[in-house]
């Protein structure tokens, strides 16, 4: 899967079913392993957080990569 394909998928939290946002960046280590996804919040979440900050999602928090969404457990 390419980064461009990942960026088109919505990130959804399985605990409450809310859409968190979309991937804007990846952080990788020296070995090339993905450490976490950087998610830009939706407009709704920007209003709820004090600075509209990005969310970091560790790779082990990802439950499933779907065709349109990525399910995470936050």
Beta-strand percent range: over 45%
What's the tally of helices?
2
CATH architecture: Roll
* Overall 3D shape: globular
Largest sheet: number of strands, sense, barrel closure? 6 strands, mixed
Rg calc: 12 Å
Which parts are unreliable, with pLDDT below 50 for 5 consecutive residues or more? none
CATH class: Mainly Beta
Mean pLDDT: 84
Class derived from helix and strand content = mainly beta
Q: Examine the coordinates and then state which fold CATH places here, giving the name of the CATH topology.
A: SH3 type barrels
Number of strands: 6
The total domain count is 1
Describe the protein's architecture and organization.
This protein has 74 residues and is mainly β. It has a single domain, classed as PRC-barrel domain (SH3 type barrels), CATH 2.30.30.240. The protein has helices at residues 3-7, 43-48; strands at residues 10-13, 19-28, 34-41, 55-58, 62-65, 69-72. It has a 6-stranded mixed beta sheet with strand order 4-3-2-1-6-5. The radius of gyration is 12 Å and the shape is globular. It starts with a helix and ends with a strand. The mean pLDDT is 84.
